[in-house]
Amino acid sequence: MELVFNQTLVRTLAHALGQPVLTLALEAQFGALTRWDDRTDPFWARKAQYARPRVTATQCWAGFQRQRVAFQAAVASGVPLRLWWSDTAEDQLGQLWVFEQLAAAPNPLTAVHVPLVAAHGDGAAATLTTMAAPRELDEAALRHLTVTATPQPMALRQALRQALHWQWQQLQDEAAPVRIALEGQLIGVAEDFFDRFLAPHRPNESATAVLGRTMGQTQLNVPEWWWRYRLVQTGRAAE
Asked: What pTM does this model have?
């Protein structure tokens, strides 16, 4: 089973590989890392309020629980798992979460690291493109990555899990409201960290237009609902 953390990669990956793809939409770069069993955690209400179409906090929490149950069922069945991750904060945190959940499960596990820099063209005409998230890879590139990826030996996996466990614990204890990836390292930052990237408001411009310009100009791996939340918090849009 293919595991991804960014929903926009699912369709391309499923078509390229012809395999079931499970999205674990953790969005662990925002909010408490202890919220998975707590439906009253503020994260669920915040996401529900600013998501479009709107849902309730309970629906938001239940949607993630369905994903988690599907993951747990796959682990219990013993099927091989292939984990797709990149250097984004979303994917690095997702990988930490998965290793925490797997514990000593015997499922064969392959971790596919997706590069965020891709070459296009040949020779002098070749150019490098930096991507905000792995969703921008095409099917041929995704298929190529599966050729070189091999299952992790259990001994290596257990050693890696121990190291990742301490990192996960440290991030939980830090309890930062937002986490970013800086030069490959996960760092906690203030809730207003991304506010500097919000497009400036123009006279008579709607919040939807500001949101569209922000997402189009920054190309950051930040979900739309978070941008909408920050627009309201900075007074650039109404609730």
From this structure: 0.90
